[in-house]
Specification:
This protein has four helices and ten strands; from the N terminus they run H-E-E-E-E-E-E-H-H-E-H-E-E-E. By secondary structure, it is α+β, with helices and mostly antiparallel strands.
Length: 162
């Protein structure tokens, strides 16, 4: 079959199990996934500061991926569907709909503990932070954000994945 007539595979069960924000880290020195990197995902408030009540943590898998997060802060101990990023996501979307339906852009921060991966004195960036928006104009039907990084000891790059 030609690419134009190929039918895409249906969404896998794995896609349904992932959280709304995922990441993937590749080591640019080896071309392989970067496992065991601690990552923190923070929601920023309107002033651009971290909201200590809404954050999530995870460690990259052997495949360099994070598809599910563990909640921290007040959210982990009794917030909206405690311990669940999906629960927080659903709550937030419902809250916005109750307030008139407008989906305001939210700013998130991914912090990668690159020092833990490379080791002391072996990297220029002990931590890599990537800030990005969710919701807002043009994002009405988007329910997943993938933020991969290509990581080296002296630099990194990121892009909006799919």
């Amino acid at each position: 079959m030609s690419p134009a007539t190929t039918t895409p595979n249906p969404t896998s069960t794995q896609d349904h199990d992932r959280d709304p924000i995922t990441t993937h880290v590749l080591d640019s020195t080896t071309g392989l996934p970067a496992p065991s990197i601690p990552v923190r995902l923070d929601l920023l408030n309107e002033d651009g500061n971290i909201d200590e009540n809404v954050y999530f943590t995870a460690v990259t898998s052997a495949d360099g991926r994070i598809t599910n997060w563990t909640a921290g802060g007040d959210h982990a101990t009794g917030g909206h569907e405690a311990g669940s990023m999906k629960g927080y996501w659903r709550w937030w979307q419902g809250f916005l709909l109750d307030m008139g339906g407008e989906r305001k852009p939210l700013t998130w921060s991914l912090k990668f503990d690159t020092l833990a991966y490379w080791g002391e004195g072996k990297t220029f960036y002990p931590q890599v932070e990537v800030r990005f928006f969710t919701s807002g104009e043009g994002e009405e039907n988007r329910d997943h954000y993938h933020v991969p990084i290509l990581l080296g000891p002296w630099g990194y790059t990121t892009y909006r994945g799919s």
